[in-house]
TrEMBL record:
GO terms for biological process: negative regulation of DNA-templated transcription. GO terms for molecular function: DNA binding; DNA-binding transcription factor activity. This is Transcriptional regulator, GntR family. It comes from Prescottella equi ATCC 33707. Keywords: DNA-binding, Transcription, Transcription regulation. The keyword tRNA-binding does not apply. Residues 9-77 form the HTH gntR-type domain.
Length: 251
């Protein structure tokens, strides 16, 4: 970075980047408290307001957390897969750094509950079951249901065949065949216990606590095109969402 580029970077970002690098280097491992706002302000010759803004960004992104009366500490997410979700594109981008391993190939069968959630005309749906792996470690078991009419489009897709291993997502495979783009993913998050199938796929004990995330995908015409049910191992996965408030123009 040139001197001119450095001068154009806001001071709070310089501070945040420096602290982020120190966290990555392990300087604050083992519960070591980060320096105080006053100490950091002196070190970087900036105001405490600037340091406060830097900490605000670090807390928002999950790099650090604050304990009232005790100080600021680094989050230890090593060994976990971290995914920051804020858009449909973020869900599509799961394919960029994880691998999908198909456990049950795409197949047609009757499932009254799945058909109801898909608002399907019949009880027949298409289902595929897979797990996702990051750095060689499985962290989620997912079952995806598609309406029969859409599932037929993906019948025979190599990525959804028995034993297939790849970097695709089901919505990524499906969307090019849709008349309308996927614009919404309504989701619910609950706590569940790992079934035998989930435990076998993720390498944990049956009954182990897992994070269940259900997603219902809809296109711009309001049609439900996919329902997925995923079970995440909490010790191997960090789920992060950023919520923003629209500017109202009022103080």
């Amino acid at each position: 970075m040139s001197t001119r580029e450095k001068d154009s970077v806001p001071a709070y970002r310089v501070v945040a980047d420096a602290i982020r690098a120190e966290i990555a280097d392990g300087r604050y491992d083992g519960g070591v408290r980060l320096p105080t706002e006053f100490d950091i302000a002196q070190r970087f010759s900036v105001s405490r307001q600037t340091v406060r803004r830097a900490f605000h960004d670090l807390v928002a992104e999950g790099s650090v957390y604050r304990v009232p009366g005790r100080g600021t500490f680094a989050n230890d997410d090593r060994g976990r897969y971290l995914r920051h979700h804020g858009s449909i594109e973020d869900l599509l981008n799961l394919s960029t750094d994880t691998t999908m391993e198909v456990l049950e190939p795409l197949h047609s069968h009757a499932d009254i509950d799945a058909a109801a959630r898909l608002r399907a005309d019949t009880d027949v749906v298409r289902t595929v079951v897979f797990r996702r792996v990051h750095d060689g470690v499985p962290f989620v078991h997912t079952t995806v249901h598609l309406p029969e009419r859409l599932g037929r489009v993906l019948a025979g897709a190599p990525d959804l065949a028995a034993g297939a291993v790849g970097t695709s997502t089901v919505i990524g495979l499906l969307e090019p065949h849709l008349a309308h783009p996927i614009v919404e993913a309504a989701q619910s998050i609950t706590v569940a216990s790992a079934s035998v199938a989930v435990a076998d796929a993720l390498g944990c004990e049956e009954g182990h606590p897992v994070l269940r995330i259900d997603r219902v995908y809809a296109d711009s015409a309001g049609a439900v095109v996919e329902v997925s049910v995923s079970y995440f191992l909490p010790e191997r996965y960090t789920y992060r969402v950023t919520l923003r408030r629209e500017h109202t123009g009022q103080p």
